[in-house]
Amino acid sequence: MRWVNGLLAVLLVLLQAQLWFGQASIPGLLELRGAVATQQQQNEQAEARNEALAAEVENLKESTEALEERARYELGMIRDDEVFYQVVEE
Questions:
Q1: Which InterPro entries does this UniProt record tie to the protein (predicted)?
Q2: pTM for the model
Q3: Theoretical Cys-Cys bridge with 18: which of 2, 5, 22, 68, CB 3.0 to 4.6 Å?
Q4: How many CB atoms lie within 10 A of CB 28?
Q5: Angle, to 10 degrees, between the axis of helix 26-62 and the axis of helix 2-21?
Q6: In this structure, what are the phi and psi dihedrals at residue 87, rounded to the nearest 5 degrees?
Q7: d(CA 34, CA 28)
């Protein structure tokens, strides 16, 4: 009977060691949960950016005003009936 208790004690120690220091340990689980939370936050930011870009693309497809505004500010384009003045500050 004494050897059975000894065997059970050794098994308990081995299982506890595996639980705290093994491949699928509790600290490893906590680290993975932190990594999952970080990745979810990054995914939410990427989804928000994707939605904003999709709205901008839809606006450019639908509205000529948005396309014209973008051409003016990013490419410096003007219409044929407009005069362009550039003010240089010193």
A1: Cell_div_FtsB (IPR023081), FtsL/DivIC (IPR007060)
A2: 0.55
A3: 22
A4: 13
A5: 30
A6: -100, 120
A7: 10
